[in-house]
Amino acid sequence: MPLQAIDTLARIETPESAWLTFRLAGPWTRMVAYGFDFLLRLLVLAAIGLVFGFLAGLFGAAPLGLLLLGFFALEWGYAWFFEAFWDGKTPGKHVMQIRVVKTSGSPIGFYDAMLRNLLRAADVLPPIGVLGPSVGTYGVGLGVMLATRRFQRLGDLVAGTMVVHVERPELRTSFAALRGNIKPLERARLAAGYRPPERVLELIDRLYRRRREMHPRRAAEIAALLAPRLRERLGYEDLEGLHTRSPALFLLRVLRTFAAEDEAGGDGWTRTVPVSGRRRAASREGSRP
Amino acid sequence: MTRARFLAVRRPAWEAFEELLERVEQRRTSRLSGRDVSEFARLYRAVCYDLATVRSREWGRGLEDHLNDLVRRGHSSLYRSPPGRPQEVVRFFAEGFPRLLRSNRAYFWVAAALFLVPGLIAALVVAGDPEKAARILPGVVREMFREMYSGSPEAGPGGGAGAAMTGFYVYNNVGIAFRCFATGILFGAGTVVLLIYNSIYIGAAAGYVAGVGHGERFFSFVIAHGAFELTAIAVSGAAGLVLGHALVHPGARSRLESLRRRGLVAVQLAGGAGGMLAVAALIEAFWSPCGAPSGLKFAVGALLWIAVIAYLGWAGRERSAR
Fold first, then answer.
1. Is residue B9 a contact partner of residue A273, using CB atoms and an 8 Å limit?
2. Shortest distance, CA A140 to any CA of chain B (angstroms)
3. Residues from chain B contacting residue A206 (CB–CB below 8 Å)
4. Which of A11, A72, A80, A162 to mutate to test the interface with B (most CBs of B within 10 A)?
5. Is A171 close to B14, i.e. CB distance below 8 A?
């Protein structure tokens, strides 16, 4: 087993021997989702409370029974049924873009949803008064979550489930960083023979795309980790001292230099293989690219 | 092969796969033909392979994430368990649940003992000296019990508002049962505490009402639904003990693994108990408070006890060999 990075990814091997990764949802995201669900339930409770309270005024006590059944359903059945029939999501989870899956990566079933949500009664302990299983400090759940690798509370552990982020990464068709007006490095000042691998170019692009999420000085700090080494590998004669003065710009110019080279050789983003050739291409190229 | 060429060649397959995926994911609107299904499986394997290629060549996170997402969605669609059908619920209550309970009967007897013995003791003590009830039941509750069972049999407790009481009994009793099950995961301690607590409380109440001279009214009221209610609480206790035992004594497995295996059994028991309590709530709200003479009520109650015992003891047995 290779050394595992400390991160919040869950890695799963599928029967096809492919490794899948899931980004785990942490306690904070889940708490916000829970808060949303809680408010929603409160709203529904208030609404049916008003309606049945009014009906009870007209027809006597019978509608109150329905009201109590509603209480019961919301308290125990809300998360259970949503998760069982809506792909592991409750409205709160939907808003936070997270969902429940089995630790094997497959969707959860009826009993999984039942198990993890009934066991909520243990996770909410210690209780706040006697307000029912959906109100409590969640001390047990939080403690267990922080002690497990996949942020599982007791219900998750027993049901074999985990909560993950739902992501739809689009395949980007070009480097975002290239849209700016960046000059490539001068060829004459580059030692021949070294081309930065694709993942390095990606990394530079990712740093660029996240530039608004961090302070420029922090971005420069991160860029400064990569820039000197890259300059060394490239054998670039940095007469202006660009890689130390403005490491982020230096990286962008590296990206421009080599990404352009790629594009000149046909970037492949626009060309498509005709449908009839698809199967052949898939089987031939798929087996030994 | 360069990354650019790889993309050019493989991208159409990914797009075709994604298109199929979208149809599979909203399976209500369009059903897939046999051809589509085999095409789906073939493309899925190809995308798995592409993902491995991209990972090993380190062709960038963007590409990797995209393919990872495609494989993840494909995996979800392929390895989804078939949707449950309504017949399965019927089958579960007709056969599965009693069978499951019988194969875990040791837990049931322990839970039943925990739920019966402290209550019996409390009932006997309190019946002998109703003032002792003050140590367990608050004054308001004692007052309520005395009121409830002192009237004529026709004005039963609950005032005839059957539907309202059903709601209350479901809310209260099924809640207790589920909590009794769930807290079993605290090494069984939660279950044991809840069983004993409820046992003493109910026992003291019964003893108190009998002690102040309303015994016949009380027992004719509780006997019918008690068959379902009391057994179901013991069953949910058994479910909690299954969890606790899996944790305390996991045998050759790790504690986690043992919990996962037994958890499925436990939750089904708890679900069965929930069903029994729903039946109990209906009886408790509509039959138990009705004005029938005590003799009839005891007879019906006895029949229901026999029915519950027969159900849990024999339902779903294999027929003997022909």
1. yes
2. 10
3. 61
4. A72
5. yes
Tokens of B207: 């003893």
- Is the minimum CB–CB distance between B106 and chain A shorter than 8 Å? no
Per DSSP, the three-state class of A9 is strand
| Shortest alpha-carbon distance between residue A164 and chain B (Å) | 12
Amino acid at B219: F
User: Which range in A127-136, B85-94, B297-306 is most confidently predicted, on average pLDDT?
Assistant: B297-306
Q: DSSP state, A106?
A: S
Which of B92, B111, B80 is closest to B265 using CA atoms?
A: B92
| Per-residue pLDDT tens digits for B8-24 | 888 888 888 888 888 88
Would an 8 Å CB–CB cutoff place B11 in contact with chain A? yes
Q: What does the domain layout of chain A look like in residue ranges?
A: 9-165, 176-264
Q: What is the pLDDT of residue A122?
A: 84
Whether A135 has its CB under 8 Å from any CB of chain B: the answer is no
pLDDT digits 0-9 by tens, B269-301: 998 998 888 888 888 877 777 777 778 888 888
In this structure, are residues B273 and B111 in contact, taking their beta carbons and an 8 Å threshold?
no
- Per-domain residue ranges of chain B: 3-78, 88-314
Beta carbons within 8 Å of B227's beta carbon, 6+ residues apart: B280, B301, B304, B305, B307, B308
Q: Is the predicted pLDDT of residue B168 greater than 80, yes or no?
A: no
